Amino acid sequence: MQVSGPSERLESVSEPGIQEEPAWRSLPSRLHDSKRLVVGRWRGGGDAIEEHEWSGDPDRFTIGFPLRQTQGALYVGQRLAMRGRALPGWVQITPPVQGARIEQLGRYDQLHLFVPRRLLIDCYEEAYDRSAPPGIELFSRGPAYDAALERLGTALLSAPDIGADVARIYADGLCGAILARLLDVYSNGRRRGQDEAAGLIKWRLTRTYEFVHAHLAETVRLEDLAAAAGLSRMHFAAQFRAATGLRPHEYLLRSRVERAQDLLRRSGMPLAEVALSVGFQTQAHFTTVFRRFTGLTPNDGASRITDAPDVWAHCVRSPAPASLVNSWRSSRADAGVGI
Questions:
Q1: Per-residue pLDDT tens for 101-148?
Q2: Is the CB of residue 235 less than 8 Å from the CB of residue 208?
Q3: Cα 15-20-24 angle, rounded to 5 deg
Q4: 101 bridge partner residues
Q5: Cβ of 59: how many Cβ atoms within 10 Å?
Q6: Rounded average pLDDT over 200-210
Q7: Which residues contact 133 (CB under 8 A, 6 or more apart)?
Q8: For 22-36, 268-282, 287-301, which range has the lowest pLDDT when averaged over its residues?
Q9: Four-CA torsion 97, 103, 105, 108, nearest 10 degrees
Q10: Rounded CA gap, 179 and 20, in Å?
Q11: What is the distance between the alpha carbons of residues 310 and 123, in angstroms, rounded to a whole number?
């Protein structure tokens, strides 16, 4: 993919390879002036709580998401952006200049995409064949789940396993798709079709959350969720995905895994009983879905959750922001479900 700017043409949209970050959200010095998208990876962790600060980047948007379940709190500027567990698929966008701070416990593995503003403008003008609007920005709908970005980011990890002759084409194609997704979903300059679905309005979304968490142990059909939101199946599915970045079924599965984690930590129930209580008919299916979203088996999850130090709870006591993830958690707390 070629991206042309007003004064030059980039032969590629991305730097080769995934860069191991020398510090959280920091690039190797040789890439500080790169005009391409840079992919960074930050991993490590242990039993102690870690805190990391980042002063921000003057020219780049930073898109971060975990490759494995992460426990912690993220502050962007002075605002609490996320607290608790972040599962793979969670996406957060930090604009240029804005700094951030993170507190985390346990092992972590995070991918960061560093996108120069100039590259975003060039891609916009190539995609829409018109000048980018002044002050083009990327906005995150709070911490949001975006299954498409999760799959694209994870696919980048396979680039080192591909033959050298085609690895660059492979990585560049994925980075081009990531830029297209960012422009289409998160840009203030996006151009939408008149027939595109708007996201569910807040009261419909709240009713959906409440219905899901009240019926996790039961069979939940798309018709049931649509009825709870007061919409037809077709309109509900499109609007729910526009609002959350998830298909309704994937949200249901994530909710079941979250409830299962709470039960594994607090109840001591047998795994088969946990599986049934959150809507899985077999322990095998439960194990498959649990591993998909956490990277652990339920047995691993029970052990690691139970052994986590109690001191962690005191590091994330700040009020939750008005975001998708915390609205979900608030609806669970109102229903008497432990978080």
A1: 999 988 999 999 999 999 999 998 888 888 888 888 887 655 677 778
A2: no
A3: 110
A4: 53, 75
A5: 15
A6: 86
A7: 188, 189
A8: 287-301
A9: 0
A10: 21
A11: 47
Beta strands in the chain (DSSP E): 3-4, 9-10, 14-20, 37-44, 50-54, 60-66, 70-76, 79-86, 90-94, 100-105, 108-116, 144-145
**pLDDT for the residue numbered 40:** 93
DSSP assigned state of 221:
-
C-alpha distances (whole Å) from 203 to each of 206, 309, 311 are 5, 37, 36
Q: How confident is the model at residue 52 (pLDDT cuts 50, 70, 90)?
A: very high
Reading the block at residue 17, the tokens are: 């390879």
Phi and psi dihedrals of 119, rounded to 5? Answer: -65, -40
Residues 6+ apart with CB under 8 A from 292: none
Angle, nearest 10°, between helix axes 202-214 and 222-229?
A: 140
Nearest alpha-carbon partner for 142 in 295, 322, 19, 14? 322
Q: What three-state secondary structure class fits 178?
A: helix
Confidence at residue 318, expressed as pLDDT on a 0 to 100 scale: 28
